[in-house]
Specification:
The structure holds two protein chains of two kinds. Chain A folds into two domains: about 40-165, Oxidized Rhodanese, domain 1 (3-Layer(aba) Sandwich); about 165-290, Rhodanese-like domain (Oxidized Rhodanese, domain 1), CATH 3.40.250.10. Helices cover about 30% and strands about 15% of the residues of chain A. Chain A is built from eleven helices and 13 strands. Chain A has helices at about 40-50, 60-65, 75-80, 85-95, 115-125, 135-140, 170-175, 190-195, 220-230, 250-260, 270-275, and strands at about 5-10, 10-15, 40, 55, 75, 105, 130-135, 185, 195-200, 205, 235-240, 265, 280-285. In chain A, strand 6, helix 5 and strand 7 form a beta-alpha-beta unit. The longest helix of chain A has 12 residues, at about 115-125. The termini of chain A are far apart. In chain B, the strands form four sheets. In chain B, strands 6, 7, 8, 9, 10 and 11 form a six-stranded mixed sheet that branches. In chain B, strands 1-2-5-4-14 form a five-stranded antiparallel sheet. Chain B has a five-stranded antiparallel sheet with strand order 3-15-16-13-12. Chain B has four domains: about 20-125, Sulfite Reductase Hemoprotein, domain 2 (Alpha-Beta Complex); about 155-315, 2-Layer Sandwich (Sulfite Reductase Hemoprotein, domain 1), CATH 3.30.413; about 320-410, Sulfite Reductase Hemoprotein, domain 2; about 425-590, Sulfite Reductase Hemoprotein, domain 1 (2-Layer Sandwich), CATH 3.30.413. The model of chain B is unreliable at about 1-15 and about 310-330 (pLDDT under 50). In chain B, helix 6 links the parallel strand 6 and strand 7. Chain B has helices at about 1-15, 30-40, 45-55, 80-95, 120-125, 160-170, 240-255, 265-275, 275-290, 295-305, 310-315, 335-340, 365-380, 400-410, 440-455, 530-540, 550-555, 570-580, and strands spanning about 60, 65-75, 80, 100, 110-115, 145, 185, 200-210, 210-220, 230, 235, 345, 350-355, 360-365, 385, 390-400, 425, 470, 485-495, 495-505, 520-525. In chain B, helix 8 crosses helix 9. The chains are: A alpha/beta, B alpha+beta. The interface of A and B includes residues 285 and 291 of A. The structure holds iron/sulfur cluster. Iron/sulfur cluster binds next to loops of chain B. Iron/sulfur cluster binds near residues 429, 472 and 473 of chain B.
Chain lengths: ~300, ~600
């Protein structure tokens, strides 16, 4: 993001991005069906048949080449993370032929965490119609659904940019939120990592809590109840973070959204950056809990 | 015979739904818990009241961090189904730390669960027919039963159903919701196996004149002060099991000490009154209870008792059979090592029980799932048992399945040998999660296990039946008093620096003739392994022919050693130099506890008596 001129607004950082004029090509336009945050298998299959969706596979390239969901484009997460400035994200989307109104469904083979990080990035730069596939690629394959091996290419599109700061937080924003009663910081890492060290005043919702046996996310009523148990109001503002690049917390971001919490932000640089900036953290050293692990 | 065994068990396992009498859970308790947490968080419920409620529902405060809980899941009789194991695996992954822990009282514990998630765990448990209700608190704790019950060569009958009937009868029973302190029932299978002398009520099955019954021991228990239970009467028929249990609880409820926290277990009452007086009171009480017991009450118990009567048809006594697969001439392979220590012939010809040796009771969710699959695939009874040695025991395995079971278990790190040998050390939670812990007994037990496996100690027959049990404080959840070599944690100042220290005990034992261990000496935590190795070295020099370690330690403790080491003093003289630490400056690490990189400080909080 360093190549962008930054100006602050009340939500955090604002990017001034110089864009080429939008010239939306006709052939790239897909009739816009609005997707839910999580897309089920049947819906995706129908959309694929009708050629009304861009499927994005975020696994490593070699895995993609071994087989992927029909029509899927390959976008290894590492490619996106190597430069996740809004400009670069737009460029990636254009290369995948994603136009403003293209319905996009993202999948991975890592319980949805990698897909979430990509889907969040698309949302961040202003793509409204993006969804996570409810199952992983392995699940899809195990269900005996169709796969293909050919490498898919798409005519370039020209996506507009409209950065959605309401879903983004940086370190400074998180630091200010720490002592704000109306803001809840959620650590999405596993329990023992959380106990070891975390951002002061953050609460722990491990990513392992939000999936069910057959879907990357539980049903919304269960997720809602989990939040209620924790006294988290659906009107609260929530900021999620995890260990390093915002994958686990990306998944929790989507979980909270499906649970009906409207104001959720992701701190994509997460605890790795927080620590490197020397920000305060809470460490719990009064117990030897790691010795309970059976591994 | 084998055919009838097959069909009996298979027919009972066909039932898909939870048998209502085998269902311990109550889904409503989840919502109730969630509401109480909210009230507590809103300061509408004071901390003490909330704490009592939380404990009654099986959630302990975690070590020095009350935001988290340890949830103790009751496993009545130690009997658990594969579905329940999978449920626990999922709950641990979702709300705990991705592993579960078998306790010395056959419970399964989930650690570091956020207080706000406890209600969800309670809900999940209820869905699987399980409960954590009354697993803690001043009430009837998990009812234990020997994991050999039903398959033990020496048992007169299978007491599992009696254990479960007692558990069922007292669970949520108003009679025992507010006792002076916790209360423990332990059922044995025979006089050799079981922890009957160290429970409030310990029961050994017996048959007299064709009538089933028990020898009941009362007032035993381990703790800062431990006692061995007393025999109530020569024989208590099955028909008096309920009235005897109720009378004991009533006498204790009425006369037990409610003032002095340190003396409120029933064993102190027995000790203060004197056994004879307590016994007289109890027998009188029983007359009253029997005269006034309502028919519905009696029926409820009898109904619980009648469940699983199928199991009785399995109790056909036969001679111990030799394992057909062991061939000591062949070089020791991992399989034969495991076979040697972990597979036991049942009294039912052709069937075997298999130990799954864990490290201090820890098992990951993935391992639990594979174990559940193993039970489903290979165990005719479709159940597993938790053991007081913090292991699992799966039974009714046909001999031809044993290699397959091994392959499956080993594929996920569950194929370790060494069950029922010195290798399989027991360790309570210690500083990994317990508020009262002074030392990391949990890790020490694991260190001993891996060190002794490395030294192939499981292969030495002299170490069979010997045990090492470790508690992180004097409270005995690790049952150190009944070990061949026991340890409990403490802190000591050595040359101006604090160090974690264990008090070592010798010659404890379990079973009907069980005895408490004798305190020997204090050993710094980082010297425990060296001291045990030295003891073993001495034993090897001194032992008489085929004498085993357990017997030798008993002999030396009694002052009847063989050669150079006649008495404890002789042995202590050899051990003392090993317990001496270099100065802190020379070797700071020897002053630290296992699993900690900072200097040792003994930190404890108010006890809720976690195990
Ligand atoms: S209270 Fe029990 S679990 Fe805790 S350290 Fe002491 S013996 Fe171990």
């Amino acid at each position: 993001m360093s190549d962008l001129t930054k100006t602050k607004n009340k939500n955090g950082i604002k990017y001034d991005v110089k864009l080429k004029k939008n010239t939306i090509k006709k052939e790239n336009t897909m009739s816009p069906s609005t997707l839910n945050l999580v897309c089920n298998v049947d819906t995706l299959r129908t959309l694929i048949k009708k050629n009304k969706v861009r499927v994005v596979d975020v696994r490593k390239k070699d895995e993609y080449l071994k087989g992927h969901i029909p029509t899927a484009a390959s976008l290894p997460l590492a490619d996106l993370l190597s430069d996740d400035s809004p400009e670069s994200i737009i460029k990636i989307m254009n290369n995948l032929g994603i136009a403003d109104n293209t319905p996009v469904v993202v999948y991975d083979d890592t319980f949805g965490a990698l897909a979430s990080r990509v889907a969040w990035s698309f949302k961040f730069v202003g793509h409204k119609n993006v969804s996570l596939l409810e199952v992983t690629y392995s699940d899809w394959k195990n269900m005996g659904l169709e796969i293909e091996k050919k490498s898919n290419k798409f005519p370039k599109s020209s996506h507009s940019i409209d950065i959605d700061y309401s879903i983004y937080a940086d370190a400074e924003y998180v630091e200010n939120a720490r002592n704000d009663k109306n803001k809840v910081i959620i650590d999405s890492r596993e329990r023992l990592n959380f106990l070891t060290e975390h951002i002061p005043n953050s609460k722990n919702i491990p990513y392992t809590m939000i999936r069910s046996e057959d879907s990357i996310l539980r049903n919304p009523s269960e997720l809602k109840r989990f939040m209620e148990n924790r006294g988290i109001d659906s009107n609260s503002e929530i900021i999620t973070y995890c260990g390093s690049v915002g994958t686990l917390s990306g998944l929790v971001f989507f979980a909270l959204k499906t649970a009906g919490i409207s104001n959720v932000k992701l701190y994509p640089k997460s605890f790795k950056e927080w620590k490197s900036l020397g920000k305060p953290k809470i460490e719990f050293k009064d117990a030897t809990y790691w010795d309970l692990s059976a591994e | 015979m084998v055919h009838s065994v097959d069909s009996d068990i298979l027919s009972s396992s066909k039932k898909k739904h939870l048998n209502p009498d085998e269902n311990w859970g109550l889904v409503e308790e989840s919502e109730y818990f969630a509401n109480k947490v909210k009230l507590y968080r809103q300061d509408k419920l004071n901390a003490d009241e909330f704490r009592r409620f939380r404990l009654q529902n099986g959630a302990y405060g975690s070590r020095l961090n009350s935001e988290f809980s340890m949830i103790r899941i009751k496993v009545p009789g130690g009997d658990i189904s594969p579905e329940q194991m999978e449920k626990i695996a999922n709950l641990s992954e979702t709300f705990s730390i991705g592993s579960a822990h078998v306790s010395t009282r056959q419970n399964i514990q989930l650690h570091w669960v956020q207080l706000e998630d406890v209600s969800e765990v309670v809900r999940g448990l209820a869905e699987g027919g399980l409960t954590s209700r009354e697993a803690c608190g001043n009430t009837i704790r998990n009812v234990m039963c020997s994991h050999f019950a039903g398959v033990c060569t020496n048992e007169p009958f299978d007491a599992t159903m009696h254990a479960k009937a007692v558990a069922k009868f007292f669970l949520r029973n108003p009679l025992c919701q507010n006792l002076p302190r916790k209360f423990k029932f332990n059922f044995a299978c025979c006089s050799e196996h079981g922890f009957v002398r160290i429970a409030d009520v310990g029961l050994v099955p017996a048959i007299r004149d064709g009538i089933r019954g028990f020898r009941i021991y009362l007032g035993g228990g381990l703790g800062a002060a431990s006692f061995i239970g007393h025999l109530l009467e020569e024989f208590t028929p099955e028909s008096r099991l309920l009235s005897t249990s109720i009378s004991t609880i009533r006498v204790y409820d009425r006369l037990g000490n409610r003032e002095n926290l340190a003396r409120n277990r029933m064993r102190y009452l027995v000790n203060e009154l004197g056994w004879e007086k307590f016994q007289t009171l109890l027998l009188k009480e029983r007359v009253i209870v029997e005269a006034t017991m309502s028919i519905p009450t009696k029926n409820a118990f009898d109904r619980a008792l009648s469940i699983n009567t199928n199991a009785n048809s399995l109790s056909t006594i036969s001679n111990k059979r030799k394992l057909p697969l062991i061939n000591s001439d062949i070089a020791q392979t991992p399989y034969s090592r495991w076979l040697n220590t972990n597979v036991i012939a049942q009294k039912q010809p052709g069937y075997y029980g298999i130990y799954i040796t864990l490290g201090a009771g820890d098992i990951t969710s993935n391992q639990l799932r594979v174990l559940a699959e193993c039970v489903r695939e290979f165990s005719l009874e479709q159940k597993a048992r938790t053991t007081p040695q913090q292991n699992f025991f799966i039974r009714y395995i046909k001999s031809e399945s044993i290699p397959k079971v091994f392959t499956k278990l080993s594929s996920i790190g569950l194929g370790n040998p060494g069950a029922n040998t010195l290798v399989s050390a027991v360790g309570c939670s210690g500083t990994t999660s317990c508020n009262l812990a002074i030392t990391n007994s949990h890790r020490l037990a694991k260190e001993i296990q891996s060190k002794f496996l490395e030294l192939n100690f499981d292969m030495d027959p002299a170490f069979r039946t010997s045990t090492i049990k470790i508690s992180g404080c004097p409270n005995s959840c690790g049952q150190h008093e009944v070990a061949t070599i026991g340890f409990y944690g403490g802190a000591s100042r050595i040359a101006n620096s604090m160090a974690p220290i264990y008090t070592m005990l010798f010659a404890g034992s379990t079973g009907e003739t069980g005895e408490l261990g004798k305190t020997i000496m204090r050993v710094p935590a980082k010297r425990v392994i060296d001291v045990v190795l030295k003891i073993i070295e001495c034993f090897k020099e001194e032992k008489d022919g085929n004498e085993n370690l357990h017997d030798w330690i008993h002999k030396v403790t009694a002052g009847h050693g063989n050669d150079k080491i006649k008495t404890l003093d002789d042995l202590k003289k050899i051990l003392v130099p090993i317990t001496e630490l270099p100065s802190f400056a020379e070797n700071p690490d020897s002053y630290k506890d296992y699993g900690a990189d900072s200097n040792f400080v003994a930190k404890t909080a108010r006890g809720e008596c976690a195990a």
